[in-house]
Protein 1
Amino acid sequence: LPPGPAPTSWLVGNRNQVPRQKPWRWFQELNNQYGPVVYLQMGRTPTVVIGTAQAAWEILEKKSPSTSSRPRFIMGQEIMSNNMRGLMAEYGPSWRRWRRVLHGSFMQKASDTYKPIQSLESKQLMVELTKSPKKYREHIERYATSVTVVITYGRRVHDIYTDEVVCLNRQTQQFLTSINIPGKYLVESIPALLYLPNILTPWRTAALKQRAIDIEYLTRLVKEVQTKMENGRAPHSFCRQLIEDREKHEMSELEIAYTCGTPFGAGVETTAGTLASFLLACTAFGPSFIPKAQKELDTVIGPDRMPTFDDFEDLPFIRAVVNETLRWRPVAVLGGTPHASTEDFVYDGMFIPKGSTIIANLWGIHLNPTDFPDPHRFDPERFMSKRDYPGPWQHSSFGYGRRVCPGSNLASNSVYINVARILWGFNLSKARDQNGQEIEVDTFAYTNGFNSVPLPFPISITPRSAAHLAIIERENEAAQEEMKTYDS
Ligand code: HEM
């Protein structure tokens, strides 16, 4: 077996040693102490923590036929979701069908068809940042949410606090996060408890209640799209596509409903959190990279128009800023949902048993000084030349193997277009207090959740010039006209 700390007891193994707060830091320490692959015993489940890009690539990419399943999530997947959420599904025919559908709608070429709405929503984000810069967090969340809901159901989101779809989805995600905490429920370690009657299992009741709420609103949203299709008023959307291709994919109405819930669950907090990290990096490290970024933008774009997707190839430094943002503070800090092995195998002389939970700790992988010297420093220059690093992106933000993030193109496009435009249009620096002193920010102040996103921080965001402001306003006016089609 790989090396690791001794378990504290036969029954719970190492479970009680795992810190409740930011366990990724402890995992990083273990990898520093024991090596790139560490073994833990979580209850009865063998668990492997990977701490380097190379080991993660070898295990999760090269051995992907045996390492692409998920651990059992009894509360979140089996009870609350009746095994309907593909993200937590075990590797098998039903996951494959779900994944094929997502590929068809989100990978490479398909994701290009969403660029127009990403561009339009980004123009609204720009104008919102001019009007109420202190509410930057609300604005980037509205951007990420509205793009997701337009793509999924063909309708916009104007207010993230009152929109019904957003509130219901948020409740679902919060419930899911609150029950998917390792060690919280005994039934996760002793599945035989599932056979007890309902009266003896009160933990089941709340999860079943949430399941009923989810089924009601997820199916209602699909029916709304169906009605719009019948009336000839449904813009193109993921949901409409699924309804049209229903027979080809052999999906039930409920499967369509849950599949449509996927982009919200996986794509909103990740995208908004990454953009928040970008703004935090601007606040903490701005003078070291913003001048170079703005010089590139001024040379290639100039002050008379905003950057677009067509400028992507001509903006190498902006692309480097995007990659560095994804590396510097990986939002899916533990590599997203863990993988699970479906066969015994040997890696570098170490035995990995079938049924192991495998965690690719992105905190350790991205903050490994061998691959990224001075790793906590935000430095886009790392991405200006090709380095010896496994995989297509030179970072590991989107995970590995057959489970690699199917929304990676959509997400990268959102990060690119907003990073390019925000750097083009705004001066970004530390906010100042009443005495005119700069307010320092803490680049480690992040949430403890499944996704780790920056806690609120102050930042100064002001238009670079009157000319930039005029273009931001003009572009937004035209964008609002174009987006009306999603409001009917
Ligand atoms: C910056 C934004 C994003 C980041 C950093 C990110 C990262 C990740 C990571 C690390 C995984 C786990 C991969 C693995 O298991 O090895 C994942 C899975 C996933 N992501 Fe993303 N993601 C982002 C945005 C999105 C978006 C916009 C979507 C919308 C379609 C999406 C959909 C998914 C789905 C469905 C999975 C589960 C795949 C499966 O289990 O087969 N993600 N993502």
Note: The pocket of protoporphyrin IX containing FE is lined by residues 87, 99, 102, 106, 262-263, 266-267, 270-271, 274, 331-332, 335-337, 339, 397-400, 403-407, 410-411 (CB under 6 Å).
Protein 2
Amino acid sequence: MTDVTTGATDAASAASLMAKPEPQKNTNSPWPGPPGMIPVTNGQADDANIHARAYLDSLLVEMRIIDAVEPDLATEIIGKKYTSPMTLAAVSHLNKVMPDKTRKPMQEKVQAAKKLGVLNWIGMEPDDEYAEIVEDAGPTVRIIKPFADHEQIYQEIKTAERLGAVAVGIDIDHVPGTDGHYDVVDGIPLGPITAADLGEYAAQTDLPFIAKGVLSIQDALKAQEAGCAGIVVSHHHGRLPFGVPPLAVLPEIRDALKGSGMTIFADGSLMSGYDAYKALALGADAVLIGRAILPELLQDGSKGVEKKFAQLTAQLREMMMYTGVSDTSSFDPTVLRRV
Ligand SMILES: Cc1cc2nc3c(=O)[nH]c(=O)nc-3n(C[C@H](O)[C@H](O)[C@H](O)COP(=O)(O)O)c2cc1C
């Protein structure tokens, strides 16, 4: 049976699939490629994904069927129109994991997003690979790592501008490493991002700037102060041990940013259209779908993603109809009951 938390096909691999890179514990991972390339979970209480899943499953839904009609999923995100409030998350490094070197999952994902008319995100790829991946792409947000070398950040912002990104940002939640020091990714040292840094990056570019990995009102307000156009409420598939479920903090962040005009994205274990519905009902303007599309992407490329996305869309539409939500600006958190 497929596990709704992870998309994995049995309980053992479900427990092993999410969260922090744990190369030595990757034996049950269903992903191809070198151990640790695609994050897996330790399945313990410190794994924030466990709590994200439990929180999502504790949210039940009232029915408001009288007067309900088929919903319209068209959504404006930072001034551009898309067919859905569901976007394809940054899931980097995938071209390296495929044993079949003729396959390019990063490009396949970009093409699926374009075909579907949804926003796509690109994460940590070197600028030259990023350029190849987004050749002939639809709208893309480029997320840059919090490099210790700030010059590299400025350079990557410039490349994103040149390549026509619709927004640019930093995954600010990728500063700490599991050794208690600043993380190092692909041999590149990461470093702290101060509020002043964030303000400078946001001011440097005409593109909307996004802070990805906000999980408190404090950081949300700092991002606002820094001039960010948007935030992603996220713990980056459980980088933070014991991380609070993004959906648990989303409503208070939404309230804190009320009237700011900022776009609020959310992600974290959204494995179905029903999960996406809950994030949207709790105040996300749009959601990022990452691991829910990974098995299909790696197995069947663009077509697999399109098929999975159609399933997520059907679930989102079904839930919107049952709850009388006719369009993506009409979500109502009072429909949800926590049990
Ligand atoms: C294989 C993989 C690579 C990722 N790489 C990046 C990255 O480079 N930059 C980034 O901001 N997020 C990255 N993420 C995090 C996702 O964008 C997303 O925040 C996270 O997976 C939570 O969403 P999900 O539960 O739908 O997967 C990555 C996720 C995965 C699974």
Note: The chain has two domains: 11-61, 75-328.
Protein 3
Amino acid sequence: MITSADILKALSTVEDPDLKRDLVTLNMIKDVKVEPKKVSFTVVLTTPACPLKEKIRQDCEDAVEKVTGPDVDIYILMTSSVTTLRDNAPLLPGVKNIIAIASGKGGVGKSTVTSNLAVALAQTGAKVGLIDADIYGPSIPVMFNCEHEQPMVKQVNGKNIIIPIEQYNVKLISIGFLAPPDSAVVWRGPMASSALKQFFSDADWGELDYLLIDLPPGTSDIHLTMVQTVPVTGAVIVTTPQKVALADANKGMAMFKQPQINVPILGVVENMAYFTPEELPDNKYYIFGKDGGKNLSEKHNVPFLGQIPLVQSIRESGDSGLPAAMKEGPTAEAFKDLAKTLARQIAIRNAQKPTLVTDVK
Ligand SMILES: Nc1ncnc2c1ncn2[C@@H]1O[C@H](COP(=O)(O)OP(=O)(O)OP(=O)(O)O)[C@@H](O)[C@H]1O
């Protein structure tokens, strides 16, 4: 007679190819049921759009069939729960992963990449939040077509709590909401830092799989405030391929490695990697140089997350407030692939620490 223990033993031979450990050790197998002529169980993947889903399912079926033989039906339910390392976070207890999006230079497309990553992650079924902390040019409200909106405030135990605006299934708060769009507010370091702290402590984020933070370009007080206020899962570096941008991206990466910051780098995104005319997508013109971001990631031995081409429609989508990832075609696909690769790197990162938590309540 086959038991649940036999099934778990069989599944402990199946490895998650990314996380390099077996599914039972990773706590990914739930609800094992053994009935006459039927075995069922659930596999809880670590990202909603796991590219290895089909392979893992097949490996599970093969492993279990070796124990049961061919006459037993095997039912496998594939679900997902984004992992976290934060089992004891006093601020933002419902937020599983905080991801900083940074660049060395301004204008390399950091906000464009952040907004598209946010909607592409949300499209996979993940719960996503976005804080626009770019004091020099808070462009997220325009990119999400909500620049004239104001987040509501509610009172909880006598405290004012900001309710993030929700657009395209992303909850967002921007430092731009604190000043009228046409005003020339000069954010002093302490003012900006206290605004960011408020976005963490006095906002109703609820449960999120990923909270993205669009940082100002370069290095600033904001970066320090962020790491001193919340545990950051990792940073994504956005760069364009030319030498002057790479030199600054290099500095940005060095900053995250400093002992007082110490945030792991999840990878590099190469934006404006090549120019492509919309009507001739196979024509690629490397106007800013080729593979600069890729080479940078190799130099620092961090993952390369992907290339985004320079395409007119990406700029138009940003200006019109409907991120390119929400449309169809190769440009949207590039952002969707980027989001999947990032989610995968976050899962890999989380699996490297022993205290993996699969659910936060
Ligand atoms: N891949 C791309 N193709 C076409 N246009 C792009 C692309 N990436 C960004 N842009 C455009 O370049 C401009 C600058 O982008 P964005 O505001 O995202 O940069 P940034 O790095 O966030 O700037 P900063 O942080 O200095 O405010 C925007 O008009 C945006 O639409």
Note: The chain is about 35% helix and 25% strand.
Protein 4
Amino acid sequence: MVGPPQPRVVVGSPRPRVIVGTIRPRVIVGSARAREPRDGTPRPHLATEGPPRPRVIFGTPRARVIVGSPRPQVIVSSPWPAVVVASPRPRAPVGSPWPRVIVGTPRSRVIVGSARARVAGADQASAPSLGAPQGRRQDEHSGAGAEGPRPGGAAPVPEEGGRFARAQRFPPPRHLRLPGTPDRHRGVSWRHPKQRKEVSGDSVVKARVMWLHCGLVAPLRPLPAICRFKISKVIVVGDLSVGKTCLINRFCKDTFDKNYKATIGVDFEMERFEVLGIPFSLQLWDTAGQERFKCIASTYYRGAQAIIIVFNLNDVASLEHTKQWLADALRENDPSSVLLFLVGSKKDLSTPAQYVLMERDALKVAQEMKAEYWAVSSLTGENVREFFFRVAALTFEANVLAELEKSGARRIGDVVRINSDDNNLYLTANKKKPTCCP
Ligand SMILES: Nc1nc2c(ncn2[C@@H]2O[C@H](COP(=O)(O)OP(=O)(O)OP(=O)(O)O)[C@@H](O)[C@H]2O)c(=O)[nH]1
């Protein structure tokens, strides 16, 4: 497919251009400029004429991500040996406060600009940090319109004492000036956790603005490690057509597609939460159930904090296969630290009697796996939100505990106060009495 670089060959008469033999051969067909030669000889037929072809094609492990459609697509494996990215290239962060990670290659890319966000326990409209429901903005890929007000978004209003409201979102101005910034911000000393040098005055305001654009809080003091933005990787595995993609789509997009479209390799969704005021994201990796894509999908198993094994409640074989899926996923992860969920899908299709029987078997399997069992229906939405909120809560907790273990600050008997601005989050059981008091 990829040969040594060769000189460009222009095939055919006047206009249609076929360029072959380069590292990334490009085929451009159907150009408006292609015309019949004047002498009436038929235009040479290009190999690409005929039925429409898939846009992105290849057979190498370097899956490409096409951005420009609402959902990034990874299209792998087609006989056509070219890679054509027909949509605009993903842009660098444009400064919107909705970070979104789009991954399709080992080199992940972060695109800021996604409009999706959720808050645990609240719908979008009532989410305190989101304002009105957000639509996909033009600036997400084009960068245009970045200065326009986000629908429903308010300008940043500092709270009393000069603190900005936590996780307040607003559109990024191109310049980092805040007209009419209250005087009390001037001279405030502030240092970002990653920033070594102290800044003050105008630069403080600018720095706050920048960090607010990133969806982060600009604190007066560095936030303790456990209060910083967190992210957890969750992989979803299971037999083909058990409903993994539908499950993720029901939760992330609140949609359901009754037509089966096989996942090729992996797909990826990101869902944002705010847990106890701390921004938290779930990376949901939807893997292909088809055997032929297993080798691609399994390369994405590593580093998962939770594994969701899905089976069809109406298909006993898919339940039996869950053990194999688990074994494969655990090969790439630490079994002692990963959270396991066994999810029976398509609950709407089983009768109560069938469900009782299946549930008994499923509970047995879940017990063997030490997994938490859930039964859901992506069609009706039953239990879907509850399930993912549970996943978010448990992964968040595991994340915080891991952070504490890492910092060495946690001791048995300590009480952890998470919803605090205090630097010292640990209420040590045997506190020293102040020496000044009797
Ligand atoms: N009735 C019903 N059908 C469902 C449900 N979930 C998924 N389906 C259907 O099952 C089929 C397969 O769903 P997918 O989500 O694409 O399956 P998948 O596990 O992602 O399949 P692969 O990508 O091949 O691994 C689709 O036709 C869905 O419409 C459900 O809860 N109820």
Note: The chain is about 20% helix and 15% strand.
